[in-house]
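Fill in residues.
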């Protein structure tokens, strides 16, 4: 029997069952000199390009102008588990606190976490991190 399809599909199936765990999932928190609305647009474009698996996983997001916060997330097809999320909070008019978290499986891994950091910081969409990181 040929189980090659199962090996290919297994990581996606596992990713579909396991969302973000705030205690164990890879995450990155940082401050950038960028307005929270700009970060929202960058993160949303990046998530659509790199986290949605060609539209198979919906991207959701919202800006709360009253609280000066925003979030972008990739969810399962039924909107259940979140596999990647960016939380943004304005510190002032031109700087923001950002937390990016991924579930660590399949395309929502530490490499995509680093790429999202670069997109938020520099504004150039990329699904691969090109910047050296401290170990």
């Amino acid at each position: 029997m040929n189980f090659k399809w199962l090996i290919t599909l297994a990581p996606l199936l596992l990713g579909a069952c396991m969302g973000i765990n705030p205690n164990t999932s890879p995450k990155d928190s940082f401050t950038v000199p960028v307005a929270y609305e700009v970060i929202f647009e960058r993160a949303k474009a990046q998530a659509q390009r790199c986290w949605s698996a060609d539209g198979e996983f919906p991207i959701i997001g919202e800006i709360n102008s009253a609280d000066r916060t925003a979030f972008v997330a990739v969810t399962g097809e039924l909107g259940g588990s979140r596999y990647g999320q960016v939380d943004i909070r304005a510190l002032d008019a031109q700087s923001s606190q950002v937390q990016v978290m991924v579930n660590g499986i399949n395309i929502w891994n530490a490499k995509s976490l680093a790429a999202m950091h670069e997109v938020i910081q520099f504004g150039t969409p990329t699904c691969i991190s090109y910047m050296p990181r401290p170990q």
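DSSP finds three helices and five strands in the chain.
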